[in-house]
Amino acid sequence: MLEGLEMRQLLPPLIFAVAMLALFWYMIMRPAKQRQDKHNELVKSLENGDKVITAGGIYGTVVRVLDKTVQLKIADGVVLTMDRRAVRRRQTEEEG
Fold first, then answer.
1. Cα–Cα distance for residue pair 14/19, rounded to 1 Å
2. Which of 57, 23, 55 is nearest to 39 (CA)?
3. β-strand pairing of 78-83 with 69-75
4. Do 39 and 65 share a structural domain?
5. Is 87 helix (H, G, I), strand (E, B) or coil?
6. Domain containing residue 56: CATH number
7. Which site in 22, 23, 29, 38 is 20 to 30 Å from 73, CA atoms measured?
8. Per-residue model confidence as pLDDT tens digits over 30-67
């Protein structure tokens, strides 16, 4: 069993380790989870007519939304079928 002196010697490194884990979570894990949640919300809210940009940099207009895929019109007569998760963001007025 640890004596009182040994416990006092172990306490500062233990507090430091817990503080570092909390800081790591707050600075790295929490923002990443927030970005992922925001992206999931975007993917679920896709509708026909939305102007979007894909992860590959393709600009297009959503013409059909299915369970796992989305069809994008990228030019007259050209429709691509892509995974819904490939949509990164909606276009803004300046990008359109």
1. 9
2. 55
3. antiparallel
4. no
5. strand
6. 2.30.30
7. 38
8. 999 999 999 999 999 999 999 999 999 999 999 999 99
HEC per residue, 46-63: CCCCCEEEECCCCEEEEE
Q: Which two tokens stand for residue 21?
A: 């884990």
Here the tokens at position 49 are 């007519």
DSSP secondary structure code for residue 66 in this structure: -
Alpha carbon distance, N-terminus to C-terminus of the chain: 69
Residue 68 CB partners (closer than 8 Å, separation 6+) = 83, 84
Is residue 8 located within the same domain as residue 39?
Answer: yes
* Total domains in the fold of the chain: 2
Identity of the amino acid at 8: R
**54 and 36 within one domain:** no
List the domain range (segments joined by +) for residue 36: 1-45
